[in-house]
Protein: 2-Methylisocitrate lyase, PEP mutase family
Organism: Noviherbaspirillum suwonense
Amino acid sequence: MTLKQRLLQQQILIAPGVYDAFSALMAERAGFEALYLSGASIAYTRLGAPDIGLVSFAEVCETMATIRERTALPVIIDADTGYGNALNVQRTVRRFERAGASAIQLEDQTSPKRCGHLDGKQLIGAAEMVGKIRAALDARASDQTLIVARTDAVAVDGFEAALDRGEAYLEAGADVLFIEAVRDAAQMRIVTERFASRVPLLANMVEGGKTPLKNAQELQEIGYRLAIFPGGTVRAVAHALEAYFGELRQSGSNKGNAGRMLDFDALNGVLGTQAILEGSRRYEG
Ligand SMILES: C[C@](O)(C(=O)O)[C@H](CC(=O)O)C(=O)O
């Protein structure tokens, strides 16, 4: 089933944030049906930097291709601003689609963008963003590849302006709508009442961010069709590493870390080592 078909179903789709092939494998193993390749999480893990527009098009594209080597799950990819104007957007869409993206998310911030839950964001004009969405739609090779339109207007121009932008982006042909950083349950309900009958809506669950956290069931009842948990993975990894490094540093051994680790065989199980090695025997001389 394609992501497009899956989003037609009533049951909400949960896409955890991933940032490399390993996190993608772990999410697949946990039973998720789709993945969200988070720009923020690539910045956190690859650059050790915040989500402030430092990650380049090529780094994201390469990450997508690497994930695609290891999983067939649908991937929603965070393309930030599309890395430039409408022409850049077209190149981004073509390359990300070829690298294996099932959905490509574009937002209406100026460049360099910043995390939707940080203060001090700025927007491009709605008309320019409409042009970018149209450029994205024209550039994709398949209409099964979805274009997710995100507006960051709530924090900049207010909630009404965000709804107006949502309307314009929907009219431009966006396949999924993402009103970023809505502030409370009432705003969430207004968004879904206005748009849910016309387009799948994405909810963004950022732990400690501007939007109240809800579980998948609650989001489905409100009317969302897709829920991403983009940064939670790295926050969990950071927590695990803190404990792991703390113990190793303190005791000079991993004895005390045993309960926090997969053992050698379990990790090879995640990686599929045995099957890979067996497969390679076919080519032995
Ligand atoms: C969705 C997001 O764009 C991302 O890069 O994953 C971020 C998430 C985050 O910073 O945790 C966002 O701007 O909401």
